[in-house]
Design a protein that fits this description.
The protein has 205 residues and is α/β, with parallel strands linked by helices. The chain contains nine helices and seven strands. The protein has a seven-stranded parallel sheet with strand order 3-4-2-5-6-1-7, with helices on both faces. The radius of gyration is 16 Å and the shape is globular. The two termini are 19 Å apart. The mean pLDDT is 95.
């Protein structure tokens, strides 16, 4: 199977090739068509399985023909290192497009992140939940056009005590959005959160 078989835009296929990938991994082959169809998804995949590409590629396919720049996709991650990794992957795959991506996380000066959000119109934002709420409270973020929400390592976010922050964010986002949750385990608290966040999700392991 080749990436071209998913019907992806040429600019995204060029970005995938330039990033050194030729064939989709098992998780990508299963998840990309489901996400392209607009379904909510609960996915479980090990590190190194190509999980990030499994959701970044279909999200970019959705955003690539965008003529207006407004925040349309949000990726939440438990920690700075993962947030930065995801942002780098998005930049790699979108290098031949006009898609603009940014990253914000706790532990860095909030003023610089606030300035970036005020001065740059982003299509995709990668964030840790706490910092995202802080920035939203400062009035620099508008979630009304968000079409896709990704909860990356959702089990880890719940283990870190971030479920209350996630619930606050869910209330701020459009109910019509597509939600993609990734987790290796489903503890009770995450199961409850999944019921609140997702609508008839397809499971991919």
């Amino acid at each position: 199977m080749a990436f071209a078989s998913f019907g992806l835009p040429t600019s995204i296929l060029k970005g995938i090739r330039a990033s050194g990938f030729t064939e989709p991994t098992a998780i990508q082959s299963r998840a990309i068509p489901i996400i392209l169809e607009g379904n909510d998804l609960i996915g479980a995949a090990q590190s190194g399985s190509g999980k990030t590409g499994a959701y970044v590629i279909p999200i970019l396919a959705r955003l690539v023909d965008n003529t207006t720049t407004r925040l349309r996709a949000l990726v939440l991650a438990p920690a700075r290192d993962l947030a930065q990794y995801v942002e780098t992957r998005i930049r790699d795959y979108s290098r031949f497009t006009n898609v603009k991506v940014g990253v914000v996380f706790t532990g860095a000066p909030i003023q610089a992140q606030e300035r970036m959000l005020r001065e740059t119109e982003l299509d995709i934002l990668v964030a840790t939940p706490g910092r995202l709420l802080e920035l939203q409270a400062r009035g620099v973020l508008n979630f009304e056009d968000v079409e896709v929400l990704v909860l990356e390592e959702a089990d880890r976010m719940v283990a870190l005590g971030l479920a209350p922050d996630l619930r606050k964010l869910l209330k701020l986002l459009p109910e019509t959005r597509q939600t993609l949750m990734w987790a290796m385990s489903m503890p009770p608290e995450l199961n409850r959160l999944a019921k609140e966040a997702l609508i008839e999700p397809v499971r991919v392991d």
